[in-house]
Amino acid sequence: MKPLPAVASKAPIKFRIPTAENLVPIRLDIEIDGQRFKDAFTWNPTDPDSEVVVFAKRTVKDLKLPPAFITQIAQSIQSQLTEFRSLEGQEMYTGEKLVPLKLDLRVNNTIIRDQFLWDLNNFESDPEEFARTFCQDLDIEDPEVGPAIAVAIREQLYETAVQSVTTARESRVSKKGRRGAEHVTASKAGGTALDLMKLFGGKSNVIRKRKEWDMYEPIVDLLSNEEVDALDAREERNAR
Q1: DSSP letter assigned to residue 64
Q2: Which of 21, 88, 135, 237 is the most buried (most CB within 10 A)?
Q3: How many Å separate Cα 94 from the centre of its chain?
C-alpha cells in the first residue's frame, strides 16, 4: 500500500468517504416468507439508478430467489444511496485525525479479528488494497474474505464521515468551544496524531500502536463445518 502522505487541514471540505474511490458500503438483510438473503458490497454512487434494478434482477436470477426479492433488494439499495447522496455537498472536517477501526468478521469458515488506526486525512487510502494485502500476509485463501474486510472498513469510515458532518453543522450553530468540537484527534486513541505519524514515518494510512502490537495482532481462525452450522443456527434464532 502506497497512499500519498496525509496533509492535515482544519478548513471544512465537502462530504466524502476518506478513500481514493468514493464508494458506498451497501448491506442487505432481507427475509421473505421464511427465506433470507444477506449480502454486503460497495456501490458507485454515480451509477444510474436504473442499474440498481438491473442488479436486483440479476441477483435474484443467479441465486434463484423468489421474484418478490427484486423489489426489496432494489428498495434497500436505493434507500442507502439516497441517504449517502443527501450528505453530498455538506461540509465536514478532517484535520489531524486517526481513528481506531476494528475487524470482527465471520466469512464462511473464516473468523477475522484485528484493530488498527486509520488516517482520515488521507483521501488516497484504499481499503480494497489493504484487504488484499491482509489476506496475502495471513495466507487467507477464501476469495470472499477480502471484499468483506474492505466493506467493513468502508462502513466504519462512512460512519465517521457522517459524524464529521454533524460536528461541522453543530460548529456553525455554536462558536463556543469550536476548536475542541471540530477535531477529535488521535489523542483519544492513545497518542497524538503527530507523534504517531513521526513514529511510523507518516507514509501509511494504517498504524498499529507499538504498545498494542502484541495485544492487537491480527487473529484468523478457521472453523469446522459443524462449528459454522452451529453459529448459523444461533444467528438465525437471534434474528427471529
Answers
A1: T
A2: 135
A3: 17
Among 69, 103, 107, 99, which residue's Cα sits nearest to residue 207? 99
Cα 52 from Cα 164, distance rounded (Å): 28
Please state, in angstroms and as integers, the Cα–Cα distance from residue 20 to each residue in 23, 38, 125, 129, 183, following that order. Answer: 9, 27, 5, 11, 22
Per-residue pLDDT of the chain (240 residues; tens, 9 = 90+): 444 444 444 678 889 899 999 999 999 999 999 999 999 999 999 999 999 999 999 999 999 999 999 999 999 999 999 999 999 999 988 766 889 999 999 999 999 999 999 998 889 999 999 999 999 999 999 999 999 999 999 999 999 999 989 888 887 776 555 454 444 333 333 333 333 333 333 334 566 555 554 556 889 999 988 888 888 788 777 766
Strand, coil or helix: 221: strand
Contact 20, 124 (CB under 8 A): yes
Q: What is the DSSP string of 98-120?
A: EEEEEEEEEETTEEEEEEEEEET
Q: What is the pTM of this model?
A: 0.77
